[in-house]
């Protein structure tokens, strides 16, 4: 009889232990046991610019994120990222600029129609879903030339060349990245962008700028441009520190252009006050 009772107790103990372990595995994305008590969790989610601003060094044309297909994929992405349960959402917008925060408040009131920008499609929708009151701007929009956007006049509009009506324009050939996007879900595409091997490959362009240009008499011209790129990202990281509370209950999500991934993830990984969380465990891994 005693053996039977012991067996029952043991069975119940194993069941309860299994349930506890399962619950812990499901919550690993929230309570990270590797994070120190005085550090803030941070996830850097690199994205493409969904509204096609055409101001990056590489022109990338996304398909319409407002299409029915892409809107379903945005909902899927939000379901995935919301499991991280961010307490703050940081965005690639100038620090102390309140434009997006004002728009977000109007969106919550039902007075603002969302556009194609990833700040709205991911940031606004996710913040509303999580009942967050605001978003946090952390960018320092320094150009690689060393100028701020406000220091530059809009370039003059060049007159369009006249073409004969009967001459058809050649369709633009999609780049490899654009073709991959069109075959992928948004979550799958963001998975690719946030893989370390891919964002490190993307960062190589800045290192290649260190190669000497013997036709240019200014020997540090390109090095200074890269210096300004690092300066911008360092100031963005400084602003991330300004908005964060350093305890293990803080979970910051930064939504940022994928070109910033290499530097910002390196800074966050090196900083003892942050605990870096990879977005890959939340996103859909594409089939190779």
Description:
With 288 residues, the chain is of the alpha/beta class. The chain has one domain (34-145, 173-276). 43% of the residues lie in helices and 10% in strands. The protein has helices spanning 2-26, 68-81, 99-109, 118-129, 176-183, 186-194, 196-208, 221-243, 261-270; strands spanning 40-47, 88-94, 136-139, 251-257, 274-276. A five-stranded parallel sheet has the order 3-2-4-1-5, sandwiched between helices. It is globular and about 85 Å long. Mean pLDDT is 87; it is low at 21-29.
Element-by-element helix/strand order: HEHEHHEHHHHEHE
Shape: globular
What's the number of domains? 1
Summarize the amount of helix as a percent range.
40-55%
Give the biggest beta sheet. 5 strands, parallel
Structural class assignment: alpha/beta
Beta-strand content: 5-15%
What gyration radius follows from the Cα positions, in whole Å?
23 Å
**Lateral strand order in the biggest sheet:** 3-2-4-1-5
Give the distance, in angstroms, between the N- and C-terminal Cα atoms: 57 Å
Mean of the pLDDT scores?
87
Spans of at least 5 consecutive residues with low confidence: 21-29
Number of strands: 5
Number of helices: 9
